[in-house]
Amino acid sequence: MGKARKTPRDFNIVIVGQNGRLQYEAVMFAASLRHSDPDFKGRLFVAEPQPGDKWSKDPRMSEDVRALLEHLGAEILPFESRHFGQDYPYGNKIEALVALPKDEPFVFFDTDTLITGPLSKVAFDFDRPAASMRREGMWPVLELYGPGYSETWKSLYDRFGLDFDSSLDTGQPDEYWERYLYFNAGWFYYRCPHEFGTRFTEYALEIRDNAPDPLVCQELDPWLDQVALPLVIHSFGGGRPGPELDGLDGDITCHYRVLPLLYARESDHVVDVLETVTAPNKIKKVIKQYDPIKRMIFQRRGHKVRAMFDRENLPNMEKKIRNQIKRAGFWMR
Asked: What's this model's pTM, rounded to 2 decimal places?
């Protein structure tokens, strides 16, 4: 008999929803999960920051969005912003984790993601965390005569007592950005959100407030979460995702970032999922309140963007795609 396949475990999903664009993206995420993975048996949490001194305006979602999310099977998860808030809203993904059920495996997704296949069949190893490799070499930005990649990253590993050498992809040349452990924070996972969230907070605050000397010229906004994340993952014995996770950023999930980019570069299947799950009137009447969604999806400007690009021959950098869309007057977020 052949080796038995690993049976995927039930797990929780968490995304962030707050007033503005994210609440409407949260609806599309929840609808796509329900559509593409009806067998998902875990819980979907929409983490919602609460009013407090880190926010000048109420960050909570509108009542119609909350009701629709609950209709789609989501649970609203309130959390307090103690360290970041409006000054660094990417910190929501860090602070929300400790509000999740303790000792239950979780997968975090950025809200600007669609589920396009059976996520529940992905064989996550929740004891070995990993994160998205759909990224470009955006950090650090090297200065002439300044520290290189190795000196910059090693200073961070040293700060937290981590082994730097074991994090390297030695198949990549020295001082090339892909040699160093670096993720997009669009998805990540672990066996316990409290352990992960506590360490993520600790590392992010230390980097923000007491960065090692080689980081003196480096911008940390908006990159702080992506600087801290590989250190957290490495500290828990994790690393780059293996082939069992290929469906993430593949056939099973799509981190589209903004709708014009989705229409420009994603597959026909992704577009079909987007337009199918947003078509029901119960969903459409809520999300069309957000102008870029109304124009891109329901007024079909997205298809005008789509016609501008050959998916088999896209520009080699996202910035070039963005600029082409902007020149045509179709960029909106």
From this structure: 0.96
Q: Report the C-alpha gap between 72 and 17 in whole angstroms.
A: 14
Residue appearing with tokens 């609460």: 50
What's 38's DSSP letter?
T
| 68-79 core/surface letters (b: 16 or more CB in 10 A; e: else) | bbeebebebbeb
Distances (CA, A) of 223 to 6, 131, 228: 35, 15, 9
Calpha distance 79→201 (Å, rounded): 14
Write the CB contacts of 44 (distance below 8 Å, at least 6 apart in sequence): 12, 13, 14, 15, 30, 33, 73, 74, 75
The distance of Cα 77 from the centroid of its chain, to the nearest Å, equals 18
Q: Quick one: DSSP state of residue 296? A: I
**pLDDT-derived band at 9, boundaries 50, 70, 90:** confident
Pick from 253, 265, 255, 263: nearest CA to 332: 263
- pLDDT tens, residue by residue, 42-57: 999 999 999 999 999 9
